[in-house]
């Protein structure tokens, strides 16, 4: 009999694996709706939906292995990273979905949240003031007008699967929608700057690298306290705090 593996579990969602089936339990019904709609529209490989009975969504495992993990060296080849960039470009070139996504927050709202979060990080002694101040300055470059595209919204490398340097599946679409293309590229390369060139080569068009680095700072600053509060360690080697230090 297959064992039940807890893939992730926190107050917002839990994901269990039983054999080749993943069971996603969502506290927010709308996130499940977003995921199902996005997978139906995305022009890239996505998991097959087996059944849906809110709050549970059952999907089939995709073949291959994850492109990598945050905090760990990626064993994927440069060609695999380039293939990921090409898949992201294909997504970004697709017709816009109806909903705004995580990568599509309004600039004023995002700026207010970032400033508030930076104050809390310093006031509560979570991070040194100079580290927060410098990364807040770097993050400013991301707070600019952008043309909306179809974004994944949570394109971390653990969500991209490859086999023989081909993309076999992209998972976890609950944050998908209209958004900033460079947010996706930044999320994909967070903590793996050495592969940024491969991703951009596969993406096939010029991108503003300063904005990608700005998103690294912004995403990390906004994520540190949430990660701690939900049982993750952003100060582990290669993770968000190291990303912030690398941008000093």
Structure description:
β1 (4-9) and β2 form a beta hairpin. The chain is an alpha+beta fold and 248 residues long. The strands form three sheets. Strands 1-2-3-5-4 form a five-stranded antiparallel beta sheet. Strands 6-8-9 form a three-stranded antiparallel beta sheet, with helices on one face. A two-stranded antiparallel sheet has the order 7-10. α2 crosses α6, α3 (107-123) runs antiparallel to α4 (129-139) and α7 runs antiparallel to α8 (240-246). 41% of the residues lie in helices and 18% in strands. The chain contains eight helices and ten strands. It has helices spanning 29-41, 78-92, 107-123, 129-139, 181-189, 196-203, 209-229, 240-246; strands at 4-9, 13-18, 21-26, 49-53, 56-60, 65-66, 149-151, 160-163, 166-170, 177-179. The protein has a single domain (63-246), classed as Aminoglycoside 3'-phosphotransferase, Chain: A, domain 2 (Alpha-Beta Complex). Residues 28-204 form the Aminoglycoside phosphotransferase domain. Keywords: Transferase. GO terms for molecular function: transferase activity. This is Phosphotransferase.
Number of helices: 8
- Kindly state the percentage of residues in helix: 40-55%
If you consult CATH, what is the topology?
A: Aminoglycoside 3'-phosphotransferase, Chain: A, domain 2
The level-1 CATH class = Alpha Beta
Mean pLDDT: 95
- Biggest sheet statistics: 5 strands, antiparallel
The SSE string, one letter per element, is EEEHEEEHHHEEEEHHHH
> Any idea what the CATH superfamily is called?
Aminoglycoside phosphotransferase (APH), C-terminal lobe
């Amino acid at each position: 009999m297959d064992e039940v593996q807890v893939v992730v579990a926190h107050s917002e969602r839990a994901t269990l694996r039983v054999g080749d089936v993943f069971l996603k339990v969502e506290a927010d019904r709308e996130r499940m709706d977003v995921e199902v709609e996005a997978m139906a529209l995305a022009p890239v490989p996505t998991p097959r939906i087996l059944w849906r009975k809110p709050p549970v969504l059952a999907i089939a495992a995709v073949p291959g292995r994850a492109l990598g993990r945050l905090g760990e060296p990626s064993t994927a080849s440069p060609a695999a990273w380039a293939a990921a960039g090409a898949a992201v470009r294909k997504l970004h070139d697709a017709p816009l979905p109806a909903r705004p996504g995580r990568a599509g927050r309004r600039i004023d709202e995002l700026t207010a949240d970032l400033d508030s979060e930076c104050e809390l990080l310093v006031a509560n002694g979570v991070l040194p003031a100079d580290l927060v101040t410098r990364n807040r300055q770097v993050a400013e470059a991301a707070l600019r007008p952008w043309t909306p595209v179809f974004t994944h919204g949570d394109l971390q490398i653990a969500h991209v699967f490859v086999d023989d340097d081909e993309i076999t599946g992209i998972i976890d679409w609950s944050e998908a929608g209209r958004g900033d293309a460079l947010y996706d590229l930044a999320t994909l390369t967070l903590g793996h700057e050495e592969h940024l060139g491969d991703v951009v080569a596969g993406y096939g068009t010029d991108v503003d690298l300063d904005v990608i680095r700005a998103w690294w700072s912004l995403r990390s600053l906004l994520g540190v306290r949430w990660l701690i509060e939900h049982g993750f360690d952003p100060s582990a080697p290669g993770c968000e705090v190291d990303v912030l230090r690398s941008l000093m």
